Amino acid sequence: MDRFVQPLVERKDLISPNDHRTLFQNIDELLRIAEDILEQLCSSDQQDQEPQMNFASRVYLSKTTAICAAYKKYCNGIKRADCVLVNKSRQTGSEFIAFITEPAVPRKRPDLTMFIHRPLQHFREILKLMQLLAGNCHVDTEEHKNFSTVINELQAAYREITVSSGLMEPLGEGRPLLTLQDLESRMVFTKCKPFTLAVQGRQWIFGGDLSRVEGRSVKPYWTLLFSDIIVFAKVSRDRVLFITEEPIPIANVVDSCFHMRKKSE
């Protein structure tokens, strides 16, 4: 927020107010919700000093509707935000690019592309956290019931965000793909040497349909963008990811551009 969102508000010479809204959308709302949840969880005046787990389940239960609505609103605009970023990045000698890359982003901090996609990653992390908490509660307790309700609502929202828009997950039924391990368990290597997907430090940024020009033909793929590699896959009806070639290291990409004249492009 301090590196990109707030400074660019003041630089209307670099980005118009409309493009700024498209790029960052309601990210302030996501921050307020997170801060509100944290404030409640850290509250020291819990009534009757009830168990912390029970209190936490009630906090998340009360915030689930707001969480889902805010993240759906944000994630539905990610593709438009990507278009703004690409258009700004393609300007030769762009002051905008200099502004967002200098000084260099610290190694453990997200650059602007990863920052734009971070809320969707954060939504997956919330869902994983709720599943972990529910798994550590006795089935016949209020907290297990609360967390289960939260999980069901988050999963429904995640499916609406991802599957219906072709974002992050391919079409079809099945458990949400939330982690690198989830993705790896769906991968089948057919024409290339198997490789490990779940390695430390790698982050899953994006997934979606992509048509690739190969000679005179255009072939459809399900493409997964990670922080260091790009993976091309073919998806079966039951969402098995067939991998036919080795991943492309991001460092090897020398040029890129895209447009959205058609949904598949």
UniProtKB/TrEMBL annotation:
Pfam families xref list: RhoGEF
Residues of the DH domain: 1-164
Record GO terms (molecular function): guanyl-nucleotide exchange factor activity
GO cellular component: nucleus; plasma membrane
Superkingdom of source: Eukaryota
Gene3D superfamilies membership: Dbl homology (DH) domain, Pleckstrin-homology domain (PH domain)/Phosphotyrosine-binding domain (PTB)
Membrane-spanning ranges: none
Protein name per the record: DH domain-containing protein
